[in-house]
């Protein structure tokens, strides 16, 4: 057992803040325990729904997703006893996440058949991205001297490569086949870019004078991000925009998570009129400033992921994981899981949805999605 100072991000203020000296026991497990938390709603496809007959037989499940309840089929605890698992990404075989209390970057097989691996110990890792070769993350152990790093998905002996230093609160991060992109989540913040192979410690400025740029996405031609304090969703070509990005949508109060798929953008924001969190959609080419609201849910820190059929999101306050068809769901999204303890980061692959339970200290998997 050991105590340490842990710099934990305040997701509302988009600023890191020192909460306390946290004493924790690092005793991660990754046993692939199937669970069914209280209130979990199955989707009728062999995952715990009331109409299912493929219910896992007589398997005895003891995992609980962090809520203290016995489980059932469909939902799997990939890792437990984590400090405060935050952002999460997935590739063909593994899931990766940052833990801002344990101050680690973690890896675990999506099958749950192996113990989790510590890829790197960091001061305050937060945003995370992955490509076919490396994991990338932002680290703000000190707000004005933050770093952006990478480590091979096979491991790097806890010796990651530093891509950029002297970053002021690096936050969201994403990657394509050539470059890594990130935000610095402060007033007069920036959007930055560096070749994934390295840029000699001299990243390229994409946009400056952004007021709290937070989460970020990329497609073949453009970079997209949410500007938390200015209530904007912004874009700039990868080739550059002379530090003059384009507004995709304005009036998006406190926008947070953002994801891109099939020429569309999806993000979350707080609707002051209804006091709800909106999940919105807009073409990457723009929507005349009028994004479609796919769903309105309990106000919360809400992050999104998307595939070719659905947009998925977490709700940390309500303790739910939800989805809606990308074309809309009549304002009635599907509850995929409830009774979760602080779900935040979310990722999807061809078969499953994965998320972190921040206060529950677990990393979860639901199949089918």
Fold blueprint:
Layout: E1 2-10, E2 15-24, E3 33-35, E4 75-79, E5 85-90, E6 94-99, E7 104-109, E8 117-121, E9 125-130, E10 134-139, E11 146-152, E12 161-167, E13 170-175, E14 179-184, E15 189-195, E16 204-210, E17 213-218, E18 222-227, E19 232-237, E20 246-249, E21 258-261, E22 264-271, E23 276-283, E24 292-297, E25 304-306, E26 310-315, E27 320-325, E28 334-337, E29 343-348, E30 353-357, E31 362-366
Antiparallel strand pairs: 1-2, 3-4, 4-31, 5-6, 6-7, 7-8, 9-10, 10-11, 11-12, 13-14, 14-15, 15-16, 17-18, 18-19, 19-20, 21-22, 22-23, 23-24, 25-26, 26-27, 27-28, 29-30, 30-31
Question: Cα-atom Rg, whole angstroms?
Answer: 19 Å
Give the strand tally: 31
- Which regions have little confidence, pLDDT < 50, spanning 5+ residues? 1-72
Overall SS class: mainly beta
Strand order of the largest sheet: 3-4-31-30-29
* Count of individual helical segments: 0
Report the span from N to C terminus. Answer: 37 Å
Query: How many domains make up the 3D coordinates?
Result: 1
So, the CATH homologous superfamily? TolB, C-terminal domain
Mean pLDDT score:
84
State the share of residues found in helices, binned by percent: under 10%
* Broad CATH class: Mainly Beta
Assign the CATH topology: Neuraminidase
Bin the strand percentage: over 45%
Describe the sheet with the most strands.
Answer: 5 strands, antiparallel
Instruction: Based on the coordinates given, report the CATH architecture.
Output: 6 Propeller
Structural shape: globular
